[in-house]
Amino acid sequence: MSHVRYWRKQKSLLVNTRPGRTAFRGPKQGKFPAVEEDLFKYVRELRSSGIAVSCEMLQFEARKIAQEKGVPAATFKASRGWVTRFMRRHQLSVRRRTTLCQRLPQDYEQQSDLSTSDSD
């Protein structure tokens, strides 16, 4: 079927869409939703404990969960690309761990008092 014919079939859908929409793809679901659900719970638990999560950790845990669920290793590889897509589907990102705050100098209050009195 040509694109023009396909577009004509979908004319009412295309006309009624919001401006700027570029695709009609819905939310994607992975081939192994049970594995993804358990892996997402695992990520939330680690993050709530303050533990950084890496892609390698996700691959290892996903393979372990798949094995527990009886998914054959030949079917489920948990490749780097799969991890990337899993993270995109679940709005996750690998973030660098940062310090919560920087320590202020011990004489901070004295310095701030001096700076405010100088401007008066």
UniProtKB/TrEMBL annotation:
Family matches, as Pfam families: HTH_Tnp_Tc5 (PF03221)
Keywords recorded for this protein, A-Z: DNA-binding
UniProt xrefs under InterPro entries: Homeodomain-like_sf, HTH_CenpB_DNA-bd_dom
Predominant localisation class: nucleus
Localization of this protein: Nucleus
Signal peptide: none
Highest taxon of source: Eukaryota
Residue ranges annotated for the HTH CENPB-type domain, each copy included: 23-96
GO CC term, one of those recorded: nucleus
GO molecular-function term, one example from the UniProt record: DNA binding
Protein name according to UniProt: HTH CENPB-type domain-containing protein
Organism (species): Rhipicephalus sanguineus
